């Protein structure tokens, strides 16, 4: 039986642990809080994040990272992206030498502007062929309800991607393989930033034309950055690009969309953080995505606008007027 360790007991980590269990894997989740771990083990549910999802009997939890790692064929990392380096530094010595490290994280590291797979390779001293990314339109609550969904499993080694595909393929969860790790990760990271912008538009009372324009031009920004970094343009037309972008920008289940909507309604950053129970990755990653764009000489005006609003305190209405008054350009430039 395939053994999997899942580090993280939030919504997505729990939902993906359920997927792995339903696919026939033996799963051990790691969590910080003993009370939540006990609830998983005794009640077969995660009462804090997904109380209505019944976990398979093959899923258990522990507070001991070494116990979670023992014998794991796949080590799944489902923690906030900005905490990865510190946590993985502690966990890396515990991991089996041949385990495949799987990132569920959708962010870019502050300061280094590194993608999550790059941080994993660096900290765990793992070759790219042993690091995979799972991404796509995967809202955790819908997957926890076992509603149909699809995803992309990306790895430089296609055989490893196929192994992971088999490990998480269920009647309701359909993964596709890809070798474009750069494109898959950028699609997942930048869509959170665009979702903040779309959420702000909704919070300001703007309509579907504005939202559709932000989504489409946001995809153009993502694609420009991806191409500058060597990604395959086709990736952004697929599940890791357009698919994830549409789900995150259009669903009230999206943390980033909801966060942006609160800002658009006039709440301050501090007020919005206070009412947000889970991490909205785009809030911090917007800065690192913009940093990454500048390092590659790529123009990303929507991302820059989000940074201005979230971190520089620019009023959304002022930022909107500035964005709309930019010089006219061809659609493709």
The stretches of 5 or more residues where confidence is low (pLDDT under 50) are: none
The appropriate CATH architecture of the largest domain is 3-Layer(aba) Sandwich
Question: Can you give the mean pLDDT?
Answer: 95
Question: Roughly how much helix do the residues carry, as a percent range?
Answer: 40-55%
Give the class-level CATH name of the largest domain: Alpha Beta
Q: Can you offer a commentary on this structure?
A:
This protein has 333 residues and is an alpha/beta fold. The protein folds into two domains: 177 residues, Rossmann fold; 143 residues, Orthogonal Bundle (N-(1-d-carboxylethyl)-l-norvaline Dehydrogenase, domain 2). The protein has 15 helices and eight strands. It has an eight-stranded mixed beta sheet, with helices on both faces. The mean pLDDT is 95.
């Amino acid at each position: 039986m395939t053994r999997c360790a899942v580090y993280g007991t939030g919504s997505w980590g729990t939902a993906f642990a359920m997927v792995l269990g339903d696919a026939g894997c033996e799963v051990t989740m790691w969590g910080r809080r003993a009370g939540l771990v006990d609830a998983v083990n005794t009640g077969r549910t995660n009462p804090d994040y997904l109380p209505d999802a019944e976990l398979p009997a093959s899923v258990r939890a522990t507070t001991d990272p070494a116990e979670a790692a023992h014998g794991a064929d796949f080590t799944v990392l489902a923690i906030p992206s900005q905490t990865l380096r510190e946590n993985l530094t502690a966990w890396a010595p515990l991991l089996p030498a041949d385990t495949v490290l799987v990132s569920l994280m959708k962010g870019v590291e502050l300061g280094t502007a590194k993608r999550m797979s790059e941080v994993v390779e660096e900290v765990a001293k793992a070759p790219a062929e042993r690091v995979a990314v799972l991404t796509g339109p995967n809202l955790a609550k819908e997957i926890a309800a076992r509603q149909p969904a699809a995803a992309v499993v990306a790895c430089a080694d296609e055989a490893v991607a196929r192994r992971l595909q088999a490990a998480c393929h269920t009647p309701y969860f359909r993964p596709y393989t890809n070798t474009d790790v750069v494109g898959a990760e950028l699609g997942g990271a930048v869509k959170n930033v665009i979702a903040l912008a779309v959420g702000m538009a909704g919070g300001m009372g703007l309509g579907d034309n504005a939202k559709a324009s932000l989504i489409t031009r946001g995809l153009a920004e993502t694609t420009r950055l991806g191409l500058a970094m060597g990604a395959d343009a086709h990736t952004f037309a697929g599940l890791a690009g357009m698919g994830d972008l549409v789900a995150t920008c259009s669903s009230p289940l999206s943390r980033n969309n909801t966060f942006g909507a609160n800002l658009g309604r006039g709440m301050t950053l501090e007020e919005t953080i206070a009412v947000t129970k889970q991490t909205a990755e785009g809030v911090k990653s917007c800065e690192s995505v913009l940093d990454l764009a500048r390092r590659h000489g790529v123009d990303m005006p929507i991302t820059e606008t989000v940074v201005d609003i979230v971190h520089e305190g620019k009023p959304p209405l002022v930022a909107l007027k500035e964005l709309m008054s930019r010089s006219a350009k061809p659609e493709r430039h």
